[in-house]
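Supplementary Methods S3. Input chains for the assembly prediction are listed below.
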Amino acid sequence: MNYKTPVILLALCASPSAFACSTCMVGDPTQSLMGAEKPFENRLRFSLDYLTRSEELGREGFNKKIIDENRLSLSLAYAPNSRWMISANLPFINRQLESFNLADQEVSMLGDTTITVKNYLQDSEFLQSDMYGLLAGIKLPTASEQKDDNGLALDFDVQAGQGATVVNVGLWYAHFSYPFLLYTSASYHVASEGYQDFQAGDALVFNTTAQYASSHGFSYYLGLEGRSSQKDTFAGVSDPDSGGTIIYLVPGIIYTIKPDLLLNLAFKHAAAVQLNGEHEESDMISIGLTYDFEIH
Amino acid sequence: MTSKYINALYLASATAAALLSGCSSSSGSASAGTQLTINAAASPQISAVQPAGAKTFVNDLGDTITLTKAYLVIASTTIETSCDASFSVNASDFLNFFIPQAQAHTSSTPTSTGTPYVINLLDADNVQASIGALSPPAASYCGADIAILAADNDAINLPTGAGEPDLIGKSIYLEGSYTLAAGGSGIINISTGAALRNRALLLATQVTLSDNSRSAEININIHYDTWFNAVDLETLETETAVVTSPLDNNVNQVLVNISNSLHQN
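Predicted structure tokens for the full assembly:
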């Protein structure tokens, strides 16, 4: 795991800056996480998020695998006008796999790149409270397949990327009424075939977050993040330990370190789990920084 | 605003550069897991060890048998950590035959081979050949379930060449001749897709896989010189003159003998 990036960022962010309050452009002091923001012409946002999680697949004493993942994601979002926002996400992933047969595998590398376009359907108004629109995205297979010293591909579950192109389309809605914010979205994901004849099942991904700002510098939120997917297949054979539904309960906080610089911290608890077969996903912890630029 | 624009570009560029330079060096590493190799060999129990080629031996009745073709299909070997009373060094007489043939290709799992392997009993005796490999969970294994099923197209070591039988759909194929102790002779011709399931072989030596011992092997000896024990060879020839049916007494005895002939080395 490489920690240079967050150190550099924190150093940069801690230095004096002439940056002004970008969110004031929309006349709304709401602290919004990446993806839940209001657009305005030339709005440019940046975020760096760290997430840690683990997953267990298979039956104990037979074919169980444990995967630990650390993910550092860099995201940039840009609004050319008040109707569109384009974002790109590039993760650096460290994944470790401990297998039932005592084999250990580890991969550390850049993962697949995701590009998302967010559309705002309503006419722009000052202090707009209700906003909604469309979402579309594509995840590109930019992460190469990792192999061992003998040239054999490492286990699919330790790979940083799927080797598949995944497209998604969806809808979103947001209600801004300071000190409250409600944001919800849902998108449907369809993947092409990836490495090792892997075919991800179609997935519906959804989230809802309610946020309350106790002050201009501090907000609490409580969200639900869920995924419901079909079973995956390998070489046309259904993976019994894949697919199903999982919903996380996500309490979190947002703190304004300085104007335009937000720190967010969230705990994601797997509250409702109906995953197929022998499949467990852990709770997750995420911490991130979001920075707003205003470019004229 | 110009300074802000410059700062923005600087921050974005610095971050991207840091992420790309610091993180772009991809790395993947792997440590070897467990490795259990399943081997099998023709191995006479009483007769002298013979080189590759036709195998001649004497059964418990004193009859002399010469096999000129002898193939046996082991479709899967499943290792077990729990061995109940059904596991035995010797096979039960109550073998489960499916007529005329059962499934061939089974599913590979961490504890079970799934690709049929055709063993040529005319290969040199006591030369173990790998018929499959597993990478199972670390544990102590006390037994092995060996399934003899009909070969399919994916079977390994299918015989090829002029004069060789088509083993697809067959689990056992034998050709040869016999000479009775009391005089008289005849031919042996057994061709069946009968499934000899669940030869629950209790391993005389437990196989333990652990951090300190990640590889092991199980050697299966096939005592082919016992296959015609307690068999009336003349009646067997009559029973198999048209078709080989496991319901016939002497065919049944041969199949029981074959299953019973699998032992750990």
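The interface with chain A takes residues 1, 3-5, 7-8, 11-12, 14-16, 18-20, 22-34, 81, 109-111, 135-139, 209-211, 214 of chain B (CB under 8 Å). Chain B has a mean pLDDT of 86.
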